[in-house]
């Protein structure tokens, strides 16, 4: 492959504007450019409008009809920030444990409702696990099928009370979602029959 010619390479830190084949104008700071694959990575203002965030967009230049360099950055880019490998390893381990827990629940024949409840509890209290078909929370509370508030057992106290509140709220939220869905369905049917 021949070396890139003038206008075929983008320096990290440069600001560019691209017009895609779909007519979309993308503008941002070059974060990376891979010449062999013609992939350009831009950092753009966040679509959410939050000033402390950015969107990162990968652009295949094969699908770009026009590229303008707004400002060319010719200085050597700053060194890359170091990665916190321990934090990444911990996150990967936690994600793996969560996926294994989900797989265990499925293989143990836990109902969808039980799996959903487990996920809801796990968002608030990380110390929960499966023991056959039972959900064990903080080694103090056991929730057995059919996973209702009355199925929460454990030593009376704040842990049991807190878990019962989470379970009750989970089922209230499910009911309100069902009610909204049914109301929307009824409204669609009445609109169609009119």
UniProtKB/TrEMBL annotation:
This is AD domain-containing protein. The gene is lsm12a. Residues 179-194 have a biased composition (Polar residues). Pfam families: AD, LSM12_LSM. It comes from the Eukaryota. InterPro entries: AD, Lsm12-like, LSM12_ABD, LSM12_LSM. Coiled coil: none annotated. It comes from Denticeps clupeoides. Residues 81-175 form the AD domain. Residues 174-194 are annotated as: Disordered. PANTHER family: LSM12 HOMOLOG (PTHR13542). The lineage of its organism: Eukaryota, Metazoa, Chordata, Craniata, Vertebrata.
């Amino acid at each position: 492959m021949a070396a890139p010619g003038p206008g075929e390479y983008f320096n990290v830190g440069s600001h560019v504007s691209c017009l895609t084949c779909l007519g979309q104008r993308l503008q941002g700071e070059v974060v990376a450019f891979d010449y062999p694959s013609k992939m350009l990575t831009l950092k753009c203002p966040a679509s959410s409008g939050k000033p402390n965030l950015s969107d990162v967009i990968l652009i295949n230049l094969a699908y770009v009809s026009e590229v303008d360099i707004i400002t060319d950055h010719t200085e050597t880019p700053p060194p890359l920030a170091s990665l916190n490998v321990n934090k990444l390893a911990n996150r990967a381990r936690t994600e793996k444990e969560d996926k294994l827990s989900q797989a265990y629940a499925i293989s143990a024949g836990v109902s969808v409702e039980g799996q959903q409840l487990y996920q809801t509890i796990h968002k608030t209290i990380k110390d929960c696990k499966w023991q056959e078909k039972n959900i064990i929370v903080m080694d103090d509370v056991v929730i057995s099928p059919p996973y209702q508030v009355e199925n929460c057992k454990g030593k009376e106290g704040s842990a049991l009370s807190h878990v019962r509140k989470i379970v009750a709220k989970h089922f209230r939220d499910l009911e309100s979602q069902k009610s909204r869905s049914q109301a929307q369905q009824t409204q669609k049917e009445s609109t169609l029959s009119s």
